[in-house]
Write a structure and sequence with these properties.
single chain; alpha/beta; Rossmann fold; Heat Shock Protein 90; 18 helices
């Protein structure tokens, strides 16, 4: 026998011993009752003490089987062959003891003999199930009991008379019944073996699936670490360039230099937008994206969004149309919804060569009760369409159709992956209907809301100015510190820079800053959160902005838990100014500047 077959049979035998142990604990009760019935009938016929002795022996054997079978399953120091032989021996002992009950036949009348026969046949039938049909154990009980039962009808007759045809028939039927039980036992054992093998295969399959899942999770973690590391290393120089570019265009330049600076900043913004796609994936995977639902007017909100994106469509010779009823109100997060629709519209423009993109909002009733009003936002294009086989894959990260050359103008392939995650976060159903060569339609369903007394949303990115601020910049890289000084100085701020927490504490003791801008990663194992905790211990309520190029999910969760205003490199000028305003407002009027901004000074 080769090793795989031997191992498989060993597993079956181990499972058999466990089954025998379970049945050994259950069977003493019905078997003991049957033995007691036979003893009572024999006592009534003879009143002999041997009846009580036989009952005592039966109970002792049942107790021995209960104890022995229960131990055999766990006695792994014994070989399987020895444990199986022990189980066979206990079954044979049980069969011999019950065979001995047929010595009471002379004391029974015909009715009692029939009762005894029925009880013994019932025990034989039950042994098929309790032994799983395993032939050695089954036959060890079945043969002695069946042979003795058959012989009692064939041989012993009251008054020494000859056997009647009925007694001969009963004896033969008992042997035939035993043969049938043996056949059923063989089938039962085959089913038992197959069930054990199926469970083993399922266990192996589950183990393989767990290993595959573990490898997939490790690969996902490795991908996340790689993206976070690559993103951080790329964001550092981009951050410096973004700050210097913004500072440059704020200086008096000739028209040609100003145009060069403007194009440089546009290129940096495009690159930053693609890097933000990676950041969005990391944020969503880290589950640190907050959802701030509010009721707002969808019609005016969509009009602003489409106006912003119309220039991109016109640049490709496409039309961008909006059809939306007036005074449409919804209750969701406007910022996250804007990311979803901006990605969908941008994707539609990107993959449409002629015709245009149509954004429409239509009303429909909820399918469940027909009473709640649902607004369906359709982003329809006349583009290339998506083949059915590709429609499930377009939501995967970095997957793009028709971009084998990885054209940078077509992005990184993260837009629809971000859309899929965000609609799940917002709990908004998203549907896709697409026909190759005819275009695609992405549909988003949002429950209608009551809009009475709801103020208009302020346009995103509204221009802001900074008051005169004394700013402390904490960053371990000198180019970033100088770029931050150049940009903030152009806004009229007084800037002091430092590269360590200790030096930052010393400068804060000399003069309290209005706000601290700190990098997340600092040298010598220090980090921006720890640095800000130290500064705030000395100066409670100190406004601060945390700036990081790290997109690892655990870093994002840590920064989110600290409750700080968080910016991700590369930081654009508008983002930095807005974050400074937010941090000063959240300071609660601790500093004079924050009181001015809050309107409490």
């Amino acid at each position: 026998m080769n090793r795989p077959i031997a191992a498989e049979q060993a597993s079956v035998d181990e499972e058999l011993l466990r089954l025998l142990a379970q049945q050994g604990r259950r069977m003493p009760y019905p078997v003991g009752i049957s033995a007691a019935v036979i003893s009572v009938m024999a006592w009534q016929g003879s009143g002999h003490w041997l009846t009580l002795l036989w009952l005592a022996v039966v109970l002792a054997v049942l107790a021995l089987r209960w104890w022995g079978l229960g131990r055999l399953a766990s006695w792994h120091h014994l070989s399987l062959a020895r444990r199986l032989r022990a189980a066979i021996g206990l079954s044979l002992l049980n069969g011999l003891v019950f065979s001995a009950s047929l010595s009471f036949v002379p004391f029974f009348d015909d009715y009692q003999r029939m009762v005894q026969t029925m009880l013994l046949l019932g025990l034989c039938a039950g042994s098929v199930a309790t032994t799983a049909g395993y032939a050695p154990v089954l036959l060890a009980f079945l043969l002695p009991v069946s042979l003795a039962n058959s012989l009692s009808w064939l041989v012993w007759h009251a008054g020494g008379r000859d056997s009647s045809w009925l007694e001969v028939a009963l004896g033969a039927l008992i042997l035939g019944f035993a043969w049938i039980l043996a056949s059923l036992g063989r089938d039962a054992y085959r089913v038992f073996v197959e069930s054990v093998q199926i469970r083993q295969q399922q266990a192996q399959t589950n183990q393989q699936l767990r290993l595959a899942l573990q490898k997939a999770e490790q690969a996902m973690e490795a991908k996340t670490r790689f993206l976070a590391s690559a993103s951080h290393d790329l964001r550092q120089p981009m951050h410096t360039l973004s700050l210097l570019g913004s500072a440059l265009v704020r200086r008096p330049l000739d028209s040609e230099s100003s145009e060069i600076g403007r194009h440089m900043n546009l290129a940096l913004q495009s690159l930053a937008s693609q890097m933000d796609g990676l950041l969005d994936i990391s944020k969503l995977d880290a589950q640190v994206v907050p959802v701030a639902n509010q009721v707002f007017c969808l019609s005016s909100w969509l009009q602003r969004l489409c106006q912003e994106m119309a220039q991109t469509a016109e640049g490709k010779g496409l039309s961008l149309k909006l059809d939306c009823p007036a005074a449409v109100y919804v209750d969701t997060d406007p910022l996250l919804l804007e990311r979803v629709l901006r990605n969908l519209i941008d994707n539609a423009i990107k993959y449409t060569d002629q015709g245009g993109v149509h954004v429409e909002v239509v009303a429909e009733a909820d399918d469940e009760d027909g009473e709640e009003l649902i607004w369906r936002i359709n982003v329809r294009d006349t583009g290339r369409g998506i083949a059915p086989a590709e429609q499930a894959r377009i939501f995967e990260e970095f997957y793009q159709i028709g971009n084998a050359e990885r054209d940078r103008a077509k992005g990184l392939g993260l837009g629809l992956s971000i859309v899929s995650r965000m609609v799940d976060l917002l709990d908004l159903p998203l549907q896709l209907c697409s026909t190759p060569g005819q275009g695609s339609c992405f549909s988003l369903s949002i429950a209608a809301a009551e809009g009475s007394g709801v103020p208009e949303l302020a346009p995103a990115g509204a221009a802001r100015r900074l008051p005169h601020l004394y700013v402390l910049v904490l960053d371990d890289e000198a180019p970033v510190r100088e770029a931050m000084r150049a940009l903030l100085s152009s806004h009229g701020c007084e800037v002091v820079t430092t590269g360590s927490t200790r030096e930052a504490l010393l400068k804060c003791m000399v003069r309290r800053p209005d706000i601290v801008l700190t990098d997340f990663r600092l040298r010598d194992g220090d980090d921006g959160i720890s640095a800000l905790n130290s500064l705030r211990n000395a100066l409670p309520g100190l406004p601060a902005v945390l700036i990081t190029g790290d997109t690892a999910p655990e870093r994002l969760r840590e920064a989110h838990a600290a409750g700080l205003v968080l910016l991700h490199k590369p930081v654009l000028e508008e983002q930095l100014v807005a974050a400074i305003h937010t941090a000063l407002m959240e300071a609660g009027g601790v500093s004079p500047i924050s009181r001015v901004l809050a309107g409490t000074a």
